[in-house]
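Researcher: Here's the sequence for the chain we discussed earlier.
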Amino acid sequence: MEATNLVEVYRGDLLESSHKGDIAVVDSEGTLLYYAGNPNRFVYARSSMKPIQAIPIVETGAADRFEFSDADLSLCCASHSGERQHTDRVLEILKRVGIDDSALKCGVHIPRWQNTYKELILSGQEVTPLYNNCSGKHTGMLATAKHMGESLEDYYDPNHPVQQRILNAVSEMAEFPKEDIKIGIDGCGVPVHGLPLERIAYGFARMANPSSLDESRQKAVKRITQAMIAAPEMVGGTDRFCTDFMIAGQGRFFGKAGAEAVYCIGDYETGLGIAIKIDDGSPRAVYPAAVGVLKQLNLLSETQISQLHHHYLPALKNARLEEIGRIVSNFSLLSTAVLN
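Model: Thanks. This is the structure I predict for it:
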C-alpha cells in the first residue's frame, strides 16, 4: 500500500498542490479499525511520542519527589512555543530539582513565539537551550536521572538508563518488540523511535483506555494524559493546534504533534488511538488531516469543528495577508473490511 492524498491546497479555484500521507485508527485492544494509505509503514513518531516518554518520570517516583503539578508534567510532554509561561516553568522545575539550566542538552533554536525572540534581541540576550521547544521534555529526563542517582551529563545518550527506560515504555505501550524499534536521533539530540504507524496509534489508544495495563502503569498514564488536558497551554502555546484542540475537546481528547508532520490523538470516550503522518513533512497539512479524521469518525460536534476552523480549513494568504486560497482536508477513511 502507498500513501494517499489527504490534503489539497487551492490558489483561487485551481488545485495547486497536494499532500499525501497515511492514517491509522486503532482501538485499545490493538485492532486496526480504519486507515488511509499505508497504516503499517514505519514512522518516527518524533515529539508525538512525548506523552509515552513521560511515563518513567511518574513511575520512577521523580514526579512525586519533585512535586510535579499538572502544568509541570504537561510541559514534559510539550513542544512549546518558548513563551514566558513555558520558560519560567522550566526554570522553576529545574530549581526545585536542584539543577541549573546549563544542564539542558537539547540544543538551540529560535523560539517559536516571535515576541520572545524580539525581547531577546532587544535586550541583547542569547538564545539558549531553555527556549528549545523540547526543554520541558529534557527537564523531565534530568529530573528522573537526578532522582535515580544517575549521571546528568549524558542523559541524552541512547544507552543511558533514562533513555533505556523510555525505550522500554515505548515497546510496552505499543506491544512491539524493543529490538525491532528503529532508533534515530531527534532534533533535540535524544533517541527517536520508529514503529509501524498502527502501533503508534495503539500506544495512544492504550493511553486513552489503559485498562489492559497493570495498576501502576494505569495510574502513570492517567496522570500524564489528564495533566495534558488540565494544562493544554503547556503542551503547545498561544494559537497552537495541540492547545486549541484539547481546549475544544473539553476533557475528552489529548493530542500531540511531532516534527515532520506527525499527529497522534487519544480519545477517552471511545478508547481510540489515531496516528497521522504526512509524507512530505509539511505541518500545514497535518492539522486539517487531524480534524478531518475526527470529523469522519463523528467524534467532534459542529461547535468543536467551528472552534478549530482556522486549523481545519486554514486560509492561504499572500504577503499582504490577503486570503487568496485555502487548504482542504479531502480523503475518505477506509474500514479494515476493505483492507482484508
